[in-house]
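Researcher: Structure prediction, please.
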Amino acid sequence: MKFEEPATLNPIDRSRIVGKPVDRIDGPLKVSGAAPYAYERHDVAPGAAYGWMVGSAIAKGTISAMDTQEAEAAPGVLAVVTHANAGKLGKGQMNTARLLGGPEIQHYDQALALVVAETFEQARAAAKLIRIDYALADGKFDLEAQKTSAAPPKKVQGSPTDTAVGDFEGAFKGAEVKIDQTYTTPDQSHAMLEPHATTAAWSGDKVTIWTSNQMVGWGVKELAKTLNIAPENVQVVSPYIGGGFGSKLFLRADALLAALGARAAKRPVKVALARPQIPNNTTHRPATIQRLRIGATQDGLIQAIGHEVWAGDLPGGDVESAAMQTRLLYAGKNRMTKHRLAVLDLPEGNAMRAPGEAVGLLALEVAMDELAEACRIDPVELRIKNDVQFDPEVGPDRPFSSRKLVECLRKGAAQFGWAKRNPKPGQVRDGQWLVGMGVAAAFRNNLTMSSGARISIDRQGRITVSTDMTDIGTGSYTIIAQTAAEMMGVGIEQVTVNLGDSSFPTSAGSGGQWGANSSTAGVFAACQTLRGQLAQRAGFNAEDALFEGGMIKAAGRAVPLSEAAGRDGLTVEDKIEFGDLAKRYAQATFGAHFAEVGVDIYTGETRVRRMSGAFAAGRILNPKTARSQVIGAMTMGVGAALMEELVVDTRFGYFVNHDMAEYHVPVHADIPEQEVLFIDELDNKSSPMKAKGVGELGICGAGAAIANAIYNATGIRLREYPLTLDKMIGKLASV
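Model: Predicted structure follows.
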């Protein structure tokens, strides 16, 4: 099914099941411990041996000698895999560094060996017996120090690296009000609950991995390329994932090492990365340096807006696309964005929840707050004044498919009680706490991906959906079941959903906020095909047939689905393919974050007292699961604002705080009341579901609202994230 023109009225618009707050259908399995995760697949790989990864102790250089003899002779050891005996390996297109290093070493904790043993403890103990001598090379580990050498990358998310409209420099120079500030964000870790883990088994020349991977189709291609085998000889199974946030988009070392270990040991092998290995061995969100320049009239109309970004990655890596939202969010005739990429020898930088916008808005939305202060305009009104209903880099010929930012700001402000805010900083006290309010806009591009599904109906009229779509805690099982139930006119209890197996049709996968909209659109397409064939079997014109109550109805007749399916049932496959609507229309999701904080006047400690947000993201397929996604993202926004930072040892090139004891993330005590308001919206140019993504929108701007609330509370403007008390306390005396 090709989606090339705006959607018209279709069965989803009945909204009998889609759009309702249905409980997660996979919830009972998860809370009872019955959901099988990657490291626990005793059902399919009984007697699996255990693998332990040995990572590099240096960040850059080569292996001059490696002695594995003592490890190989240790009790219970079945195999030791290194670059010397792994066979010829390729490198996946989506991996910046090789997943098994040696003799060259590209980053700290790059996998150099896997020890396979009968027990976990034996593998771990034997790993300590491997002796590695290194030839150390000089590395580059400091973004600030490498800023001047940063160069333009070829592309940024498939778009131009730099953009320019009008005369930015001239307009900025002549503006009545100017903001010119630099903001920094640190390296951040995904810190998901489930570590990277894989169980692998070979059957002849075919390998199956039960793994934790967000993109099953990508995983098949990447593992095949890395092992130098045909894709049809790889099966990837990933039905349940304990969080990913982008860290599991691509093939990682656990999957490759498990496959290599199983081949060497000639039996199934399971590998899980230990928590301290994850930040340096896998990926992270790269640090950024961002310069924002905004020129405006005294009454707040933006005349010039410029956003320059510097970030780093390994050779061949990508830049953090932190200026992308600035190309679309606000009006302004004179515009400029630039991205520059420095070569660093730190572990691979890559996608983390809302790559680009999450950190870009930490800078842009604070700059907008500073502009509002300089113009003496309410920050909400400043954003409304500069709203634009078309792509401001292109003009009116590319309107937004739907854009309800103003409604988000207005309704969000009313819900939060914004009118009570004192615009003068440092004026509101609650005992020893200075209290302030802040606002920030939320923006995330709406991306779509081709997605397929297989739909079956049996003789009882029961529907089964099979697709390699994944559920990373987002609710994919439930919204796919809702979609099939709505389309086929049955109750959700009549639908079975099978996910996360590469033997199923290839789906959009989970990432980039495209998963829910795209995967349900793929199910929509397959259901349309099934509806057509069932209607034909029942003697109806498909366009006239009504599917409801387990019946097909038309022309005064009603035929049960089970009867139309017949004794042998019926199975169809189809997929959604997206045309050029995303080129003809700018497509994005929008929102408005509001936060109230308290800052301890004596210690500089910041506590978030309450958060609220209003969001426009097309049809909300399930308000309960969508709200969970948004409040989770808002919580990550608190972490980005106040505590999250991978600390770089610039002498040795590694992240020092590489575990959950030292890499701080929000806990329950840090998170207050969170309110979520979804604005009614249908976007018929996004997909036949008329939905958009929502999983990443909630983090975009959340941290900036907190930063702006801190300024309102104290009058102290911090521009270096995270906004920790050591950056605050020395300035509180003036308050």
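Model: DSSP finds 18 helices and 30 strands in the chain.
Researcher: Thanks, that helps.
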